[in-house]
Amino acid sequence: MNYRPIPCRFDGKLLGLALRNLTYFPWKSNNLDLFFRLPTSMYDESDAVQRVLKHIDGKNTIHEIKKLSQLKIEDFDHLFGEMFDILNSQGKLYLSKYPVVMAENFSDIEMMLRQAVYPNMPRNGYHHYDCERIL
Length: 135
Description:
By secondary structure, the chain is of the alpha+beta class. It has helices spanning 12-18, 48-53, 62-69, 73-89, 108-117, 131-134, and strands at 4-7, 24-29, 32-37, 93-96, 101-103, 127-129. The strands form three sheets. It has a two-stranded antiparallel ribbon. Strands 2-3 form a two-stranded antiparallel sheet. The chain starts with a strand and ends with a helix. The mean pLDDT is 81.
């Protein structure tokens, strides 16, 4: 079965752009600054991490991301595996076997409530399964 990487509290395109010239991924937890070494392409492609991250949107499967990134198979496997380990350990990325996972569409009142309760969480931080399409 082909799984879908589900981003939690991040946008793949924006994260890819932010990490483009970095060699590490910064993370702060309970006033502790941590830095995870970013994977590098085996074929000297400077934007390889960005080419993988920009397709992580909760809809594409790993197989589709591999095709869309247009990287060599072994390079993609290395980059995706390393980025998955980094993001999964932070609770920012997980895999879903369900075919449809998407960001929730809130009414204005629901969105105001979510922003009041979770002020720093971006809109794409809320994902749910479309149960009607699964069944």
